[in-house]
Design a protein that fits this description.
- The protein is mainly alpha-helical.
- Helices cover 66% and strands 0% of the residues.
Length: 188
């Protein structure tokens, strides 16, 4: 008995891809950004070293340390990713000060414990969001405040000075042609 001819059913058209999912998939499947030009990397590195050494020198002149670990991360954002909102002066200075204030409030409420330090870091994220000053390194500043119990007014003043110095170094690096873009995109 002969076999009937095979019939091919038409395949239904595929639905149009959701552009939101396609973009996300593209980002996930994408590659790392290209390596920056050597000159840009060298200028950003030099600016970061200059900024952090400047903090050490200014701290020595003032008799108080200005270099705390979160400021090294702030310097990295300012000189290596100056276009990011997290790197703008409002976020660097404001985020650091808001987070330090949260740290002092948490210290007063919960004392000098690791539990309080952890809560302070998380609460700092929310406080920065509410004040429109998100700056990821600053969450660590809240933790440091709880763990080290510095004097409030001197610490806040020195922190503001240190953050402002890093912003000025970023501004100078951009003017020197670091190749990482205009800095700042906005001041406040």
């Amino acid at each position: 008995m002969p076999t009937p001819p095979a019939t091919t059913l038409p395949t239904p058209p595929s639905p149009a891809p959701d552009p939101r999912r396609t973009r996300w998939r593209t980002r996930l499947a994408g590659q790392a950004p290209p390596r920056p030009p050597l000159r840009s990397a060298a200028l950003a590195t030099g600016a970061a070293v200059t900024g952090l050494v400047l903090l050490v020198a200014a701290g020595g002149l003032l008799g108080h340390p200005l270099l705390i670990p979160p400021l090294a991360a702030s310097a990295a954002l300012v000189v290596a990713a100056p276009a990011l909102p997290l790197a703008q002066p409002r976020n660097v200075v404001g985020g650091q000060l808001v987070s330090a204030a949260v740290g002092f409030a948490a210290l007063a409420a919960g004392g000098n414990t690791l539990w309080t330090a952890a809560a302070a870091g998380g609460l700092a994220v929310g406080a920065m969001a509410l004040t429109r000053t998100p700056h990821s390194p600053a969450a660590a500043t809240a933790v440091i405040v709880v763990l080290t119990r510095p004097p409030v007014l001197p610490f806040l003043g020195l922190l503001a000075l240190a953050a402002a110095l890093l912003v000025l170094v970023g501004w100078a690096a951009a003017r020197a042609g670091s190749g990482t873009g205009r800095y700042p995109a906005y001041w406040w």
